[in-house]
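Aim 2, interim progress: modelling of the pyridoxal-5'-phosphate-bound target.
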Amino acid sequence: MELYNLKHPSQVVGFTEALKLGLGKDRGLFFPTSIPVLEDIDSLLALPFVERSKKVLGAWLADEIGQERVDALVEKAFNFDLVVEKADENRHCLELFHGPTLAFKDFGARFMAQCLNALASDEKINILTATSGDTGAAVADAFFGLDKIKVVVLYPKGKISLLQEKMFTTLGDNIHTVAVESDFDACQSLVKQAFEDSDVRDGLHLNSANSINISRLLAQICYYFEAVAQFKRQHNQDPVISVPSGNFGNLTAGLFAKAMGLPVKRFIAATNSNDTVPRYLAQGDWLPHQTVATMSNAMDVAEPSNWPRVEAIVDKMGWSLSDITGVAISESDTSAALSDLNEAGYLSEPHAAIAAQALTLNMSGDEKGIFLGTAHPAKFKDVVDRELNVELPLPEALAAVDNKAILSVTLADDFSALKEHLFKVL
Ligand SMILES: *Cc1c(COP(=O)(O)O)cnc(C)c1O
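Predicted structure of the complex, ligand included:
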């Protein structure tokens, strides 16, 4: 696999290097020089998920790392279920939340972790990342117990729910967690300072494991194939797919799947009130507003970092941006959408409800659609209980951590304290 930097096309790297670097020169995103097209999609769709995913990822990676290695990575990373559930007559949910941390980020984080552990020759790798909740849990869980890799996760002390905190601070072993006495922005700024500090960067070989890493996007392509495979067993048409979007990694992966030959009628980019992309698609001007806080807080992103990749795919394939439909859903419409689904007999959460509502607004005639279920409803228990007037039980994965002790250290919002701590634990 060969990739180039979208900001500096002369910077060309292989997959392993892009995996380790994350971003290219001047923070440019890596993008594949060519997109593999798969033959005989029908027989591919007939395969079970893990077997099919080996072929989908092999098409990108086998030339560089060998098919056998791809097979082993896929088997280790994708060891949980994914299902397409009927929500109502015309809408199905691709449930991506049956992994260890109950969110779709498990797919990308687990595959990235396995790739780094397998491909980073004999180097030790240290991951430093900041989280406001979900990403930290997915990353910590994915890297837990891997022998070549240590992880430090920063989070704002007292600013995330106790349950969220327990999901990644109770693991121990190679996972080190730091509660910073400040907010999420301060955590991000500390991480940035660490990457800019030459002692830390050169002495500790840091990697950020964030969502712009190409390995995470490749992993996410696989579940679009599964969605269409399950859908096509029941319906004699191609689905419209609606993606609840924040940083637009998920939509990027969907477009890669379509470019590889997956039959998808069209994609809907569904957002909350942070609607930079729907406004851009409708009016042609890129005008991010200040980020606003919503119920679907994992999508509170005003300047989505993966958008240049979306444009690059559209450009490469000779598609038009007008093939992608942008739909923004307000807070009150999110509430209504959540209630509608519940009345139809499908319990959901705000992110998926936004994508489901975008389908309803956008489908016509006999079209049928799939919306992506990106998190387990219990992960957003506060909002779901309040909006639907219910009392959700805790799923096993959450209940299991409830009694465990938090192993974090607390640090002030101070880079020299963090630096000292990093050299101690890494
Ligand atoms: C991260 C996240 C999203 C947004 O995905 P992007 O790839 O950033 O667009 C949507 N829903 C949930 C629950 C998430 O955690």
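The longest strand covers residues 149-156. The longest helix spans residues 214-232.
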